[in-house]
Design brief:
Radius of gyration: 21 Å
Number of strands: 22
Distance between the termini: 5 Å
Oligomer: single chain
Number of helices: 13
Largest sheet: 4 strands, mixed
Strand order of the largest sheet: 20-21-1-22
Shape: globular
Strand content: 15-25%
Length: 407
């Protein structure tokens, strides 16, 4: 457990954010698929990325991704196309996260993949037959995890004849697909949209160097800090206005909470602006579901009535994030009305002595931490969950004047 206290609510800090694990993990797969030198600089130190590196270098048959969903999905596609005979497994929660849509797509391209336990879920056995995979036309649902789509996109240039990938229904988390396309283009593979179909040519990845950008998802917690502070001037080093990352949208979403973003060279400076602020807000997060917890806590802390839609993927993340938010915001007196793809936050958070549970979910810990600026004190279970994406999070809070004590 970690206990937080806020002796003051004026935040002045300069923070070097962690590198993006989303960019890092995609770039590592491209590097592994490329026959030409791919140089990656400023790779993420997040546990998910360290796990990806370790497993790509491993010669063992069993790949344990722990709790890294991105790693599980990307490696499944990579092992299939590269002819690696591998067993992929993970934590009990990881083995309850569905992967059937990706497996069906890979089987449609000639891969042989077996389920070792429950149909549609890890553990998986990817049987070595990469040379028998083929390209052509493939359809996938677009309203599920964008990681399934990105996994297929990154291996598509390696398939004979390339791939025509048609996405059916609403496309969720489109910015993550665009991040994948941008990184592929950086390494010489140009893709294009034709309606709802992505056209990917058979083409080798080309030599290039990429410096990984800091993580906009990590930046979201500092936007929340700025929104909940009495006054704030927070410099986030290394962030670009023109970014590959879809969670760049947090700058726009936090404006109604009084947070101004000013890009200065290689940094963005966040300042707290005076009100008045809206009493109610509504956001469609179909393209940015990972921001939901941050925004829900910010709304609860400020008393803003917030309705968020497009959250259908939150039920199958590291935890059921909608249920987790209902439970933990309830501890501070805030009620959530929830459906499968939406939630509404109502009420204003009150101080509590209860411990905020994290459900083995890094974003639960980091989304709730800024609440201490309104409650004065806050206790959060299992501080080590932040290792998944932002290992220095608690140390950075201390740089901003938040006191921490571990138990």
């Amino acid at each position: 457990m970690i206990s937080l206290s806020a002796p003051h609510t004026q935040i002045r800090a300069s923070i070097q954010l962690p590198s993006s694990k989303s960019e890092s993990n995609r770039a590592l797969i491209i590097q592994a698929l490329s026959r030409e030198p791919v140089v990656l600089e400023n790779l993420s130190q997040a546990r998910d990325t360290r796990t990806m590196i370790r497993l790509l270098e491993s010669e063992g048959q069993v790949m344990d991704v722990i709790d890294a969903g991105t790693t599980m999905r990307f490696l499944t596609a990579y092992c299939a196309v590269s002819g690696r005979d591998q067993i992929l497994t993970g934590t009990p929660r990881m083995c309850r996260r569905p992967i059937g849509i990706l497996v069906d797509a890979l089987r449609g391209l000639g891969a042989e993949i077996e389920y070792w336990n429950q149909e549609g879920y890890p553990p998986l056995h990817v049987v070595s037959k990469g040379s028998r995979m083929h390209g052509g036309a493939l359809s996938m649902r677009g309203d599920v995890s964008s990681q399934f789509i990105s996994a297929i996109l990154m291996i598509a240039p390696c398939l004979p004849g390339g791939l025509e990938l048609t996405l059916t229904g609403e496309i969720a988390s489109r910015p993550y697909i665009e991040t994948t396309r941008s990184l592929m283009a950086h390494f010489g593979v140009e893709t294009r949209w034709e309606g709802d179909t992505l056209m990917v040519p058979e083409s080798p990845y080309r030599a290039n160097t990429l410096r990984i950008e800091p993580d906009w998802s990590a930046a979201s917690y500092w936007y929340s800090m700025a929104a909940l502070a009495e006054s704030a001037e927070i410099t986030l080093e290394g962030l670009r206005d023109a970014s590959f990352q879809g969670d760049r949208r947090i700058a726009e979403l936090m404006e109604p909470f009084g947070v101004r973003s000013e890009f200065r060279g290689d940094a963005v400076v966040l300042t707290r602006m005076p009100g008045p602020y809206p009493d109610s807000l509504e956001f469609d997060l179909t393209e940015n579901p990972d921001l939901a917890q941050t925004l829900a806590v910010a709304a609860a802390a400020t008393g803003v009535s917030l309705r968020m839609t497009g959250l259908q993927t939150l039920r199958i993340k590291e935890t059921d994030r909608i249920a987790a938010l209902q439970q933990e915001l309830g501890k501070v007196g805030v009620q959530i009305e929830a459906a499968d793809d939406s939630l509404t936050v109502g009420g204003q958070a009150q101080p509590t002595r209860e411990i905020i549970a994290t459900y083995e979910d890094h974003r639960m810990a980091m989304a709730f931490a800024p609440l201490v600026l309104r409650t004065g004190q806050l206790s959060i279970a299992d501080p080590l969950v932040v290792e998944k994406s932002y290992p220095d999070f608690w140390r950075h809070l201390e740089l901003a004047g938040i006191r921490t004590q571990r138990w």
